[in-house]
Design brief:
By secondary structure, the protein is mainly α. It has a domain of 67 residues. The chain has seven helices and two strands. It has a two-stranded antiparallel sheet with strand order 1-2. The chain is elongated and about 100 Å long.
Amino acid sequence: MRDLEKQYTKCNAANKIVRKQLRLAFKDAQNVLDKRIRFYERKNKRDLALNIESVCTTHPRDFWNHINRLGPKRKSALPSECYTLNGDVSTDPDIVYVCKTWEHDFRVLYNPGIDSTFDVDFKNDAISYKQHMERNMLDPLYESNSLLNSQINEAEVRKVILKAKAGKSAGIDELL
């Protein structure tokens, strides 16, 4: 098939019939190869199933070893490479160096240095905002929202409860 593919791809013939014949020969060879691959895949799967079936009846302990080999393979080895301070990849066979480098990198990543000025700045901003709001309330031109600051009476609560759908009340009191 490989030779037929090379002949077909390298063909510079002006004659379309020759090129078409080479293409058909290549396609036929490709179909034969595909059929053989499918045949051997089916044969391999069938042989594996028969082998597992026979092991199941003759050696039950080996059965699970065969089953475990069916799935994807697990790699338990850690990669023994890391970046050096220069930015190059180090493939040092000393796994201790690699583990120490990883430990340092993750420690820096997950435990960043805490900036103490952040807390002080945040606190100062919060205090100044609170003082600003209190000064606004003392201003004689300040108008509070009387609708929001009024008392909630029983009639309003009943009205809201009756509008709510059954079982849809917010909170744990389950009014409906």
